[in-house]
Every structure is written in C-alpha cells, then in structure tokens.
C-alpha cells in the first residue's frame, strides 16, 4: 500500500506482460487514473484493449470511470479507499493514514454478521443485540472475528450481556463494525454500459455483510447508475450486484439460489436494493 496518501497508486494488469505495472498520479486529480495510464502506455507501448484489470488505491472519479469504460472495456476495476466529496479530502487522508498505521499483526476486529430468519440457527439471535435489515426476514448482529497465524477464522458473537460489559451503545458498536468492514472492502467492476456486474470482496472475508452498510447504494450508484439493483448473496463472503432488468441480473439471482454453501447464520439470498431501501426477493430452499 502506498504510504503517501497524496499520490494515488494505480496498478494495471496487462495481457502479455508477466508482472503488473505500477504508476501514480495526484490523488485529488479528477483524471488520476488517466494520468497513470498515459505514463504506462508511453513506457510499455501497449493499448487499452490489452488491460485486463485495474487497481486504483482511491476510488476513481466520475471522469476516470468514464475514461476506463471507454478504454478498458474488458478490465476489472478495484479500489481500497472511497473517494470523498469535494472539500473533504483532509478527513479522508487522515482516515487512510490511520488505516495504514494499523499494525499488520492485528488479527481481531468487530464485524457485522448477517442473520436470516429462516436459518436453522435463527433462534440464537434472541440472545444477540441486532438490527433489522428486512423486518422479519434478515437482520445484522455483531461478532468479534479473529484470524489465526494459520489463516483460520474464529468468530465470537457479541451477546447482550457482553454488550453491557463493554459499556458501549449498540449504535456505537455498529459504527465500529461497519468501519472495520469498509476498510477491507474492495469493489470489482466488470463489463460496461447496461451490463455491469459489481462484486464485493474482502481479504478477511464477510463481504456479504456490506449489504448492511448505510451508504452501500451510494457507493454502487457510480458503477451501476440510478434505479433498483439486484443483489446476490451466495454466502457470507461474497456479494454480486447488477442493475435490475439487465442481462446480468438473472445471473446474480441464479448464482445465489444455486449456491452450494452450507447454511449457517445466512441463507443464500437475493435482494433488491434501491433508493427506498432493501427488499428480500428470494432465498435458497433445501
């Protein structure tokens, strides 16, 4: 990760080149990705059609997104830090520096956990402080999640008693959980025009919990446009999103409902996400 937050690191994976190519440009520039690409193109004499994937440390601006759709039509795009509104860069830079300063050996964090009312484990939710996402159908609770040196994931659900011992309001705990989740979240964008698929990934897993983020629709809109979105949750670690009515919406639905994932807290689900909120459309049966 780039230590200088004023410079946006952009990485291009290019067909025919054995290693990814790195370049940088001023983070606040509206054309930071385009500037980085100009440097790479001049150095390696390659065409935009050869770009397979682009990673931009900071979310590309609207201008850069249009540039990438036009020039890198088949490329996947991911980023780590959400681009702030104009004039809010100092706060965004401070938050990014805080993330970078965290010790790499830190392996424990509070994260939101999705709970389906139809899950065989749903009875346990009564002992956990939680919030409804779709009343009577889908809720979100919290857990302390840790990763062992061997890479295994441990999870301890936060009970009402443990919340009382922490002495923290539930809203504050959820703010912490959403912050931990968002820091490791990456958006992978495939396709262009009407047929765009956005997949959410997270190195420390639980990417599906992003459905609970208050600003998720706003983060997806630059990639998918306005209107309702179809969200597929095939398991707790994956989320796929397409515009409702697009050719990829059925793919998202089939992938979730045909998931081989063994049900735990979450039943693989399909939801509609729009400006008006969240609606559960279907769950996997059997």
Describe the secondary structure blueprint for this structure:
Blueprint: E1 7-14, E2 21-26, H1 32-44, E3 51-58, H2 62-71, E4 76-81, H3 89-101, E5 108-116, E6 131-134, E7 138-147, E8 153-157, H4 160-166, H5 170-183, E9 185-192, E10 195-202, H6 216-224, E11 229-235, E12 238-243, H7 249-257, E13 269-274, E14 277-283
Parallel strand pairs: 3-4
Antiparallel strand pairs: 1-2, 1-3, 5-7, 6-7, 7-8, 9-10, 10-12, 11-12, 11-13, 13-14
Walkthrough of the structure:
The chain has 286 residues and is an alpha+beta fold. It is built from seven helices and 14 strands. It has helices spanning 32-44, 62-71, 89-101, 160-166, 170-183, 216-224, 249-257; strands at residues 7-14, 21-26, 51-58, 76-81, 108-116, 131-134, 138-147, 153-157, 185-192, 195-202, 229-235, 238-243, 269-274, 277-283. The strands form three sheets. It has a six-stranded antiparallel sheet with strand order 9-10-12-11-13-14, with helices on both faces. The chain has a four-stranded mixed sheet with strand order 2-1-3-4, with helices on one face. Strand 3, helix 2 and strand 4 form a beta-alpha-beta unit. The mean pLDDT is 89.
């Amino acid at each position: 990760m780039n230590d200088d937050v004023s410079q946006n690191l952009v990485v291009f994976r290019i067909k025919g080149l054995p290693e990814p190519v790195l370049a940088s440009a001023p983070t606040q520039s509206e054309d930071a990705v385009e500037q980085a690409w100009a440097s790479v193109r001049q150095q390696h004499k390659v065409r935009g059609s050869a770009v397979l994937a682009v990673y931009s440390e900071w979310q590309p601006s609207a201008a850069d997104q249009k540039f990438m759709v036009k020039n890198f039509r088949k490329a996947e795009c991911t980023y780590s830090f959400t681009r702030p509104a104009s004039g809010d860069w100092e706060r965004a830079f401070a938050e990014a520096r805080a993330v970078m300063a965290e010790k790499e050996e830190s392996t424990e964090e509070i994260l939101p956990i999705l709970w389906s009312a139809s899950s065989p484990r749903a009875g346990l939710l009564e002992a956990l402080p939680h919030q409804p996402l779709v009343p009577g159908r889908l809720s979100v609770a919290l857990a302390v999640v840790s990763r062992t040196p061997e890479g295994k994931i441990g999870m301890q659900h936060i009970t009402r008693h443990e919340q009382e011992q922490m002495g923290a309001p539930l809203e504050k705990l959820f703010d912490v959980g959403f912050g931990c989740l968002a820091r490791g979240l990456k958006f992978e964008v495939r396709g262009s025009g009407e047929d765009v698929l956005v997949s959410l990934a997270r190195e420390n897993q639980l990417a599906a919990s992003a459905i609970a983020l208050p600003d998720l629709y706003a983060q997806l809109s630059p990639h998918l446009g306005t209107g309702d979105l179809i969200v597929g949750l095939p398991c707790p670690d994956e989320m796929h999103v397409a515009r409702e009515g697009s050719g990829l919406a059925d793919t998202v639905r089939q992938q979730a409902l045909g998931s081989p994932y063994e049900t735990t807290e979450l039943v693989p689900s399909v939801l509609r996400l729009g400006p008006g909120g969240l609606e559960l459309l279907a769950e996997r049966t059997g």
